Amino acid sequence: MFDHWWPSRLLGAASGLDPRPAMMLPFVLLLVCIAAMPFLQKEWWESHYAKVATVLGAVPVLYYAAALHAPGRLLQVAHEYVSFIALIGSLYVVSGSIHIRVRGEAKPWVNCVYLLAGALLANVIGTTGASMLLIRPWLRMNKYRITSYHVVFFIFIVSNIGGCLTPIGDPPLFLGYLHGVPFWWVMEQGWAAWAMALTGLLAVFWVLDRRNFRRASQLVRDRETAHETWSFDGLRNLAALGLILAAVFLRRPPGLSEGLMVAAALGAYFTTPRRIHQANDFSFAPVREVAWLFAGIFATMMPALDYLESHSAQVGLDSGMKLFWLTGSLSSVLDNAPAYLTFWAAAMGRHGLSVQSRADVQMFLSQQEHELLAISLGAVFFGAVTYIGNGPNFMVKAIASQAKVKTPTFFGYVLRYALPVLMPLFAIVSILFFSRWRPF
Hints:
Elements: H1 8-11, H2 25-40, H3 42-67, H4 71-95, E1 99-103, H5 108-141, H6 148-157, H7 171-178, H8 185-215, H9 218-225, E2 229-233, H10 238-248, H11 256-271, H12 274-279, H13 285-310, H14 320-333, H15 336-350, H16 358-382, H17 391-402, H18 410-434
Antiparallel strand pairs: 1-2
């Protein structure tokens, strides 16, 4: 999107930049802070995360401006950040202006249909939007027999793996779209892996939920499922969602796409009755945190991306299998968006290409599309492995805890659910799609 309208003399040769390795330290420090501080110093972090992101982000910005003399690179990253936040923020605001009310409790098959619908919806309004819209109805419809696995599988399916088909679905894929990956490319290349992973998770969930449902007394089950009723408030904001989705496809004039997204969000927010926002416990705090932290991530990520492009031959990322597992491993313990760009830059650099060039991206897709598919699936799928792998994960946990639902601890989530459920499933996906024996 960016290099359609910025003069080439300002852009320069991004792939030719070779920052000092020490300049990657702010990136590492920021990701470590994001991963650890909410658990080590929660109150301090909530008060100072913006300052931390600003200070660490200022270091590479000053370095690129004063030492590398690359203002075009800074302008490029700034535009990508604005596009990214405009989409994430507008979807969050509009989804928070729609409220779903439900009475009664769903049977296991109804729960599976709900999760499947949430997975599909995540590709339309993003995993963050779908998670914020659907988590509270999910807790209410299962309130008489709610357990930890209800929250965990919601995170697995709606907050992560479900949103793997479009750039709107998950932040890493939208970053790929901003760099020139066609909108429908992930769906065309990854639908089979998506369907396989989703089917496997729904099958495991159905077994667990059927057992849970049977353990409930017959009297309670009859009372819970006899009068299921649904109602929706704020459906007129679907028009705002439509405007945001249409804006994604607008490339020119510059700024029009982002402006329409912001306008749609403001229109939905100010025309929505306060009772709907109150029913959703709507707050700008989550999107404010995302905006500050990703400002720091976009800034500190520049040296890491440019260095990997310049030294990619030393990394040894020579197969889709390696890219899937290495991208996934980083995505599971850090945010999956920077992990996606980091390994994509390294993979393209190994072929003498730059992720900053749309022409190079098209060449990479025509010659090494299986590598980008491995990176895309690794980033999105493994974001479900921990609470910090993807933005919505911890937000869902916080909402569930606020509703007095018992949720697993950080390590309980990993050991009891992610490792025994997700890892075998990911192993199957990697063998079928990225090994030498792959049939697809």
